[in-house]
From TrEMBL, chains A, B:
Keyword Transcription regulation (UniProt): yes
InterPro entries in the record: FUR, Fur_C, WH-like_DNA-bd_sf, WH_DNA-bd_sf
Xref: Gene3D superfamilies: 3.30.1490.190, Winged helix-like DNA-binding domain superfamily/Winged helix DNA-binding domain
Superkingdom of the organism of origin: Bacteria
Family listed: Belongs to the Fur family.
Subunit structure: Homodimer.
Bilayer-crossing regions: none
Source species: Komagataeibacter melomenusus
One Pfam assignment: FUR
Subcellular location: Cytoplasm
Stated name of the protein: Ferric uptake regulation protein
Keywords linked to the UniProt accession: Cytoplasm, DNA-binding, Iron, Metal-binding, Repressor, Transcription, Transcription regulation, Zinc
DNA sequence: TTGCAAATGATAATCTTTCTCATTAATAGG
DNA sequence: CCTATTAATGAGAAAGATTATCATTTGCAA
């Protein structure tokens, strides 16, 4: 059986750095994730992974995605629709947020330092340190963009 | 069989106002919801509803909760843990948000007009009208509150 | 009060995710 | 480089949450 060849992805390196065993499947999944700039669910990740290496099972995708989330490599998102979706975790810099088009369901990412700061403040004043922010706003395209 | 007697709740009125048929079960569920100030999941709602009127099935709770959500009476929340949780929808005034204790999982509600305004602004500048905000911040209690 | 469309109850079916367990593979040490 | 050990994987079963089915019941308008 032939091993598919592709370079180690940034996420694969991250995986090794965290002391996780870098198996072929994890290498593949990490590659696929590094290559994605959207928010795939597990089914979709599995589809993409199989393209790269058919010797992979959906159970492993579930396992890997969970492992990566526990290790801060991935973040799980819920945009409705019943299945969890994943994206590469933000670095130490600013978080990013999601605007969901109420009609099309399309997900638009945005950043906003002012929002970062305000949230940090609010949480601190309540006596907590901010760990994660899960924010998605649902919006409807304005009828008359001026 | 005896009908349980209790007054129409605010949510029951809302239900009628929206032109939804006010069945005994919906009246019961609305009552239970009006009486709750937490974020019960369907199982928990079912438990509370059965207390009031045992002639109710969990299927109906699922159906009602979905109906109420579609009609803007309830909002569905995801705090992790695999099941959807529900709360009475905010009025036209300010939204409210959730701080989740990272260690205990406890949900703490808060409001913040500044945050309302900022989100509204951000979304407007992206060409959208804000429909709903889903925000929960996960925080960890500070070790040394000064 | 009656008729009918809609809602309900009980349970089957579906969908997503996790678990089980026999097999396979990664890695440290020789 | 080879081997042993320990963890990861594959395939499918199982679990958990939610939705669908269909015969029966009920709200509500006429």
């Amino acid at each position: 059986m032939k091993e598919p060849t592709f370079p180690d992805s940034p996420l694969a390196d991250l995986c090794r750095e965290r002391g996780l065993k870098l198996t072929g499947q994890r290498r593949t999944i990490a590659f696929v994730l590094s290559d994605s700039d959207d928010h795939p669910d597990v089914e979709e990740l599995y589809r993409r992974a199989v393209e790269v290496d058919p010797r992979i099972s959906i159970a492993t995708v579930y396992r890997t995605v969970r492992l990566f989330e526990e290790n801060g490599i991935l973040q799980r998102r819920d945009f409705g629709g019943g299945r969890a979706r994943y994206e590469v975790a933000d670095g130490d810099h600013g978080d990013h947020y999601h605007l969901i088009d109420a009609d099309s369901g399309k997900v638009i990412e945005f950043e906003n330092p002012e929002l970062d700061a305000l949230l940090d403040n609010i949480v601190r004043e309540m006596g907590y340190d901010l760990v994660t922010t899960r924010l998605s706003v649902v919006g409807r395209r304005k009828a008359k963009p001026r």
